[in-house]
Design goal:
Layout lengths: L1 H4 L4 H9 L5 H19 L2 E3 L2 H16 L11 E5 L26 H8 L3 E6 L33 H8 L5 E5 L6 H7 L2 E4 L20 E5 L2 H11 L17 H4 L8 E5 L9 H16 L3 E5 L2 H22 L18 H12 L2 H14 L4 H23 L4 E5 L15 H5 L6 H5 L4 E8 L5 E8 L4 H13 L11
Parallel strand pairs: 2-3, 2-4, 7-8, 7-9
Antiparallel strand pairs: 1-3, 4-6, 5-6, 5-10, 9-11, 10-11
Helix pairs in contact: 3-4, 6-7, 8-17, 11-13, 11-14
This protein binds glutamine.
Amino acid sequence: MAAELIFKPVTELAGLLEAGKVSSVELVQAFAARTTAVDGRVKAFNSRDEAGALALARAADERRAQGQARGPLDGIPIGMKDVIAVEGQPLTCSSKMLANYVSPYDATATLKLKAAGAIPWGRLNMDEFAMGSSTENSAFGPTANPWDLSRVPGGSSGGSAAAVAAGEAPISLGSDTGGSIRQPAALCGIVGLKPTYGLVSRYGLAAFASSLDQIGTFAHTVEDAALVLGAIAGHDAHDSTSFETAIPDYRTELKKRPGPWRLGVPKEFFGAGLDPEVAGSVKQAIEFYRKSGCEIREVSMPFTSEYAVAAYYIIATAECSSNLARYDGVRYGHRSKDATNAIDLYFKSRAEGFGEEVKRRIILGTYVLSSGYYDAYYLRAQKVRTLIRDEFMRVFQECDALLSPTTPTAAFKIGEKAADPLSMYLSDIYTIGVNLAGLPGISIPCGFTANKLPIGLQIIGQPFRETDLLAIAHRYEQAHAWHTQHPSL
Ligand code: GLN
């Protein structure tokens, strides 16, 4: 039984719970056993609290027995990226800086999941403070791609993607600042949804770049992603950038929209640097939409394709240099043991606590914000950001959504790009514009390379039109079986 459970979508697990064919305790046990069996190789988890999860599972089973089940997520374990606060659990951001930090409160997304009965299941590895594209920047060592353990799972939410792909959790949360949900989802062969900026509260998400960060979901199916989105979305007084908008029942609504849609294909996203196998699978997906009656329009987005990565690495580093100033050895986290005075304490605590990539970003960000350079870099990048958003809005006048590859290549080898930050930064070339423009985006599996590495199709939607985005993704998923294939570990 346990082996059959670990790859089932939540919608099916919920049916089994409902019918009394399995208990929540059995579910937690199944995922715990799987994690024990494979995580020594995958290394998706930073920590997990099996006893705590079992206690919540018993409570869920009790509710169900009394006819008080809270819905389809009640009693379902969910993996949490180690950047999203869960009260009483470690919140390390995969950094030495916070290696011993335990969160005193729940993120809003966590609270909402708990209210729906979901069980926070483990803290998932990531690039330190979500800076990276491979999970190699974790202070606790890299996570491996379940499809090929010598390769990266993507990042920064690599643990969240690998855990679902490897059957260690049925769903998980991640965060996406420049691609950190969609890129690892693509590389691990699962669904990754980054909602519109402002749809999900950032309260309790350790900040990297606040104008770009957004919490989102990993799942085996589009319907599961819709289910989790429905649970975590909504206005929150604790996040001043959270948006007041009605939250539909995404899961039922997405089935009521059969299309056809007008789908744009940005021609610049198919240029140099795109691996031919990835291009081939994505083009076949586009053909599928064409054959099913959608209107496919080639569009041009020269500005986004040329400048998004550059603008992002100015804006994101600027914001991170400011956000990470709080880790000063006094209020949070690591405190150097051999400081002689206050200034020395700041310097040594930060020097010892942060890894190389985080330091690189803080230095770059401090530089672009410094007087004399602010106008030349930061202000200019903000203007470029506006033009990128305008470019998306222009193509959305004639398209409901856009189709593109999620990543230029399938999963690369651990160590392959670690010494070359620029080539690492370019692995987000198709995802970053979406964050700069605040749009929703999803990656769904659309094939495999000859080496059996997953390939992702990115669908980019209009602001707050997640229902359409999910419907378009669901249409493809219904007609293909990529998402039913799992790695053999
Ligand atoms: N890879 C990008 C970066 O390193 C995006 C990270 C993210 O989305 N958190 O900044």
